[in-house]
Amino acid sequence: MTAAAARSRTDIGIGGITVRVRSSSAAFLQLLDERYAGFIERGASPDYEFGVELTPPGEGTADDDVRVYRRNGRWQLERGDFRAEWDPAARRGRIRQSANPYSIDTVLRIVHTLVLAREGGFLLHAASAVRNGSAFVFAGASGAGKTTLSRLAPADAGVLSDEISYVRREENGYYAYGTPFAGELARVGENLRAPLQAVYLLAQGAENRVSNMGKAEAARGILANILFFAEDAELVQAVFLSALDLVERVPVRRLTFRPDAAIWELIR
Amino acid sequence: MNANRYIARAANVAARMIGGEMMIMSGADSSLYSLNETASILWQAADGVTPLAQIVEQHICAEYAVDPATALRDAAELSEELARQGILLLSEVPLPDPGTRPKAAP
Questions:
Q1: pLDDT tens-digit profile of A154-182?
Q2: Cα separations in angstroms, A222 against A124, A161, A199, A252, B35
Q3: B6-86 CATH pick, 2.70.98, 3.30.750, 1.10.357, 1.10.10
Q4: Which of A2, A189, A203, B103 is exposed most, by the fewest CB atoms within 10 A?
């Protein structure tokens, strides 16, 4: 038996949280290693573990709405193309899906939103980058300019994500982490972590401009861009309070921009 | 209108004052509400045991130059609207203990 044939797992570390994925398919694990290149950990101690049962291709569709709810203390994650169950107390779960990277990508996003909700963090529809040791998040809906801004990032900036940003509260403030959750660039973010310096809510315009915002307006802007899927009143409230806490502690500004690299001169 | 009406904050909502606005999130359906100044006063005073008329008298009429009857009518209408949204409970009797309150309307 070769070492490759004996391998039954891969560890994916995102936002300081390691998820071990077990599968009997070496090809599937190889696919994950490629998909999450830069976020694969070796010799890590996992925080959570999922076993993947592969189904024949073509079962279900990713076009269905995702459902996330709790039953008997276990999270149920469902979409046409996958079904997963996760016991947060045991830190174990299982996923039933075909051998594709998209279904498990959605499961991982959901699991991270659930973990972060209890820890004062969340995933945002936002691009993010690290420059000079500080992280900046650029939030906005599709078409707001997240991908454009990421493309225009200067060479000394590390792009954390062009689509889904990872924000969590730690002992001494908020931090942004790189994610492999790619958008239109189809480029995995850099696996970096930095203290969050500012959040910008994106608006396209005729000129480049940064404007201050009232805290209530900032909170509405942040809340509108949070990814959260679970039908769970307690966690919905927790995420809401986390968003407002962030607005109290981190500057949130409006960033109006036209697509030119000069916009990055305003980011500080 | 019953002057001895009582109002209480519904369960399953989170609320926080930010930037001068009371923002409320319904845990049931993730709806976000933002209350104006008067509505915020009512919300903060909605302890389930103080009659609405007393809340209006102590917190609204004492602060604003407003006719008490008009203020009470406006407060009652506002309370009914917030109750329809499921974030406030209305009752003809006190609602002292959150654990014994009826569930908010969906």
A1: 999 999 999 999 999 999 999 999 999 97
A2: 8, 17, 9, 9, 18
A3: 1.10.10
A4: A2
Tokens 């406006």 -> residue: B74
Q: Which residues make beta-bridge pairs with A45?
A: none
For A7, how many CA atoms within 13 A lie in the half-sphere containing its CB? Answer: 17
φ/ψ of A75, rounded to 5, equals: -80, 135
What are the two backbone dihedrals, phi and then psi, of residue B36, each rounded to the nearest 5 degrees? -75, -175
Residue B74 · residue B38 · CB < 8 Å: yes
CA-based nearest residue to A137, from A107, A106, A171, A179:
A179
Q: What's the Cα-to-Cα distance from B68 to each of A219, B8, B18, B64, B83, rounded to whole Å?
A: 34, 21, 29, 10, 22
Query: Residues in chain A with pLDDT < 50?
Result: 1, 3-4
Among partner residues A234, A238, A244, which is closest to B23 by beta-carbon distance?
A244
Give domain limits for chain B.
6-86
Q: How far apart are CA A193 and CA A187, in angstroms?
A: 17
This prediction has a pTM of: 0.90
Does position B98 have pLDDT exceeding 80, yes or no? no
Q: Which domains does chain A have, with CATH numbers?
A: 3-111 (no CATH), 121-266 (3.90.228.20)
Provide mean pLDDT across the span B86-96: 92
Cα distances (angstroms) measured from residue A133 to each of A175, A195, B95: 11, 8, 53
Is B8:B55 a contact under the CB 8 Å cutoff? no
Q: Who among A232, A233, A244 is closest to B18 (CB)?
A: A244
Q: Which helix (H) or strand (E) holds A22?
A: strand A17-22
What's the rounded Cα separation, in Å, for the pair B94 and B4?
Answer: 9
Which positions in chain B touch A214 (Cβ < 8 Å)? Answer: 19-20
Residue B101: the pLDDT is: 53
